[in-house]
Amino acid sequence: MSQAVEFHHLTSGVANTARQAVIETQFVDDKGKPIDLNGGSSTPSAGSVTPASLGGYSSGTGRGKVVQVKADGSGFDFVAPVTAPTADTLTGATDTGKRVLKATDAAAARKAIGAGTSSFSGSYDDLTNKPAIPAAYTLPAATAAALGGVKQGAAVPDLAADANTTTANAKINALLAQLRAAGVIAA
């Protein structure tokens, strides 16, 4: 079986005014030996396309078709080119899916799925059917009947171990005043 090997390089010594790359292609046989396509003495391998192998075909035989090597390697056939699938020829695709595949831009894709566009500015004030938001919560003061908020009192230093009754009474009364002011006990 023959194989084709391409060597790509810019050919030197050739006037290339269009600044195009020139591809030099070498065809080799199944043993890797070059095949002379310019009428040299090399004999093509069996199954190769040659003028003789094309002798039985008219000039219109392969028009619009591609060459396909026969499965047994004995020659080739002209076959219709494979047609790429389109959105309309996909099996299993829904009509909506086909419209999305045919969409040429984001707006067309949104229309295909029925999404449309939004005019929402992003501001909460522009929304409709907004829920009622209650007023800010105010923590009630504690009472004898209900729980409530209590403020922290000022720090009161511990009594000295040898404190007298007068000093102890003064500290206790200071603590009671702070508890009343904070709402912990009734005034």
TrEMBL record:
Q: Where in the cell is it found?
A: Virion
Q: What keywords sit in the KW lines? A: Host-virus interaction
Q: Name one Pfam family in it.
A: Phage_head_fibr
Q: Which Gene3D superfamilies match?
A: 6.10.140.1630
InterPro entries reported in the protein's UniProt record: Phage_B103_Gp8
Q: Please give the residue ranges the record annotates as the region Disordered.
A: 32-57
Compositionally biased intervals (Polar residues) = 39-51
The name this protein goes by in its record: Head fiber protein
Q: What is the lineage of its organism?
A: Bacteria, Bacillati, Actinomycetota, Actinomycetes, Bifidobacteriales
